[in-house]
Specification:
The structure is a single chain. The protein is mainly α and about 60 residues long. About 60% of the residues lie in helices and about 0% in strands. The protein is built from three helices and no strands. It is elongated and about 55 Å long. It starts with 8 loop residues before the first helix and ends with a helix. This is Transcription regulator of the Arc/MetJ class. It holds the Pfam family VapB_antitoxin. InterPro entries: VapB_antitoxin (IPR019239).
Length: about 60
């Protein structure tokens, strides 16, 4: 997808400097990947304590080499 956006020059320069990325395109894509990853983690955290698990953790640990 191609789009035109106006990005704060100072923010972009900081992102490139801190990340070591070479282009604005790389920085934007990396930022989008990070946003998606964080939102997926956020969604998973909402399930904490709501999933049912059956098993014997001690037995599973004994089976490990």
């Amino acid at each position: 997808m191609q789009t035109n956006v106006v990005i704060d020059d100072t923010l972009m320069e900081r992102a490139l400097t801190l990340s070591g990325l070479q282009s604005q395109h790389e920085a934007i894509e990396e930022g989008l990947r990070l946003l998606v990853r964080l939102k997926e983690q956020e969604r998973l955290r909402t399930a904490r304590g709501k999933l049912h698990w059956e098993g014997d953790l001690d037995a599973m640990r004994r089976d490990q080499p």
